[in-house]
Amino acid sequence: MPTILVVAAADPEAEAYRGYCLEAVAARYDVVLITPAAPTWERKFITDFEIADPCDARALAAAGQALAERHELTGVMTWTEWYLVQTARLARRLGLPTNSPEAMDAARNKATARTLFARHGVPSAASMTARSLLEAALAAETIGYPVVLKPAARAGSLGVIRVNSAEELPRGFEFAAAGARDGIESTKVLVEEYLDGPEVSVECVTHRGHTTAVAVTRKTLGAPPFFEEIAHSVDAADPLLDQVAPVAAAAVKALGITDGVQHVEMRLVDGRPRLIEVNARIGGDMIGHLVQLATGVDLARAAADTARRQAPDLARTRHSAAAIRLLYPSASGTLTHCHLDAGFATRTPWLEQVTFQRTVGDTVTLSPAGDMFSARAGFLITTGPTADVAQARADEALAHLTLAVAPKPSASAA
Question: What is the SS3 assignment for 65?
Answer without folding.
Answer: helix
